[in-house]
Design a protein that fits this description.
234 residues, 5-stranded mixed sheet, 8 helices
């Protein structure tokens, strides 16, 4: 198994105190232009794909330039911090190491994780708040596509949800065969983000689907299941 995927197996989410100077996070930058903002679903799907794309990029493999940062981050908490950018600020973050994914005109860039206190100015000047987008009707799930189901009982801002679906693709990936991972990568890790009925949500939990349980640092209570990931038919 890929080293990063191997490290993700059996992840637990400790809420123990940690030295603020040692906190690491993967920044996820959402492009939200004032004049033409993206749809909520599309930006979440882009963020979900970008997060796993960084982890499975060849540069994150042993001897790769991203390897040490990615592995050190996964050994701790897979914390993500979403920020919004537009115009020149969005263009500036393209120079930072990471992967940009576009879905239906929406763009998100996941950056190589690092120490929060050492984040570059191109990142720290971006807003964390203000990433809310209205709900939309995304339509049916495309064939042969993994689905990230958002907890219908827990409202989240787009920024919070972007981090959670990024966790979802990372936890789903180790459950897939090598062949399916390769085909997923060839399709830019495309996912579908949807909100199920309360009944379907409970059925997914009862079936033991891959679940993201949040540490509770922002917006939700510790231990809240925010996302359930599945690949229908697998």
């Amino acid at each position: 198994m890929n080293e990063v995927l191997d490290l993700l197996v059996g992840r637990s989410y400790s809420t123990d105190e940690e030295d603020p100077a040692l906190v690491r996070a993967m920044p996820v930058v959402l492009r939200i232009e004032r004049a033409e903002p993206p749809s909520r679903t599309a930006i979440l799907e882009a963020a979900a794909a970008a997060a796993i794309a960084v982890c499975l990029d060849p540069r994150a493999e042993p001897e790769g330039e991203w390897h040490d940062e990615v592995v050190t981050w996964i050994h701790g908490r897979i914390r993500k911090v979403s920020r919004r950018a537009r115009g020149a600020h969005w263009e500036a973050v393209q120079a930072l190491p990471g992967v940009t994914i576009s879905v239906d005109g929406a763009e998100a860039r996941a950056l190589v994780p690092g120490l929060v206190v050492a984040a570059p100015k191109e990142l720290t000047r971006l807003q964390i708040s203000g990433s809310e987008l209205p709900n939309d009707e995304p339509g049916p799930v495309p064939a042969d596509t993994p689905v990230l189901w958002l907890n219908p009982k827990v409202p989240m801002t787009a920024g919070k949800a972007a981090a959670q679906v990024g966790h979802g693709t990372m936890l789903l990936a180790p459950t897939l065969s090598e062949e399916r991972l390769k085909s997923w990568a060839a399709n830019d890790f495309r996912t579908a983000v949807r909100t199920p009925s309360v009944e379907k949500w409970q059925a997914l939990l009862d079936a033991g689907a891959v679940a993201v349980r949040d540490a509770g640092f922002t917006e939700v209570e510790p231990g809240t299941t925010t996302v359930v990931a599945e690949w229908p038919g697998v």
